[in-house]
Amino acid sequence: MTFASISLEHKQQVLDELRLIKQQFAAKNWFPGTSGNLSMRVGDFDPEKFYFAITASGKDKSLSTPEDFLFVDNSGQAVETTSLKPSAETLIHCEIYRLTGCAAVFHVHTVFNNVISEWFGDQGAVPAQGIELIKAFNIWEENAPVSIPVLPNFAHIPSIAERVPDVLDPSIPGILLRGHGIYAWGKNAFEAKKHLEAFEFIFEYLYHSILLKNSVPQVNAIGHR
Ligand SMILES: CSC[C@@H](O)[C@@H](O)C(=O)COP(=O)(O)O
Ligand SMILES: [Zn+2]
Questions:
Q1: Could you give the domains of the chain?
Q2: Class II aldolase/adducin N-terminal domain: from which residue to which, for each copy (predicted)?
């Protein structure tokens, strides 16, 4: 499959969907200070050859302009002539697509995901249990415990991307970057958005419940791996 062989209608539909989600997340104030990036895959998936649309780097993501997105290949290189630069974090998207075969990857910075990533960063995972929204991850087991992986953050993005395979858990559609933000993904935009909203709910819940109890639970205390 070449990029040119993917229909214009499909590419336009993906751009329209991304634009709508960008507006919805902006309304939640999920892109403070130009942070965050969104992508969606186009065409068929081959772990060694795929294409996706991604937000251009450094833009005010609360605005809608003709210069918000561009298409890249699985190495993160633009596939059309453009003056736009793909997100500085494109390599992380590439790695998540390659490992999961998913179709949408969304990244946002929020106060809740940043605080939680700091509290649990040393443990390498955020434990959660007994929260109904865990079912949004398609986990239906009674009182299922989950562990959301936390990676250290680096200014050098390839150093983050190369660590993604070490922590990515196929049953958990997200990874937190410490002091940075969350990446969530899904088999389509609807599912990636659902997952991202569930993660953010869990982080906000944990933030409040930990402050009330005045102690950070340990991963092992509730049976996480
Ligand atoms: C301006 S702070 C956020 C950036 O450093 C980065 O983490 C981010 O999420 C957005 O980068 P971008 O290159 O616009 O996709
Ligand atoms: Zn970021």
A1: 8-217 (3.40.225.10)
A2: 16-207
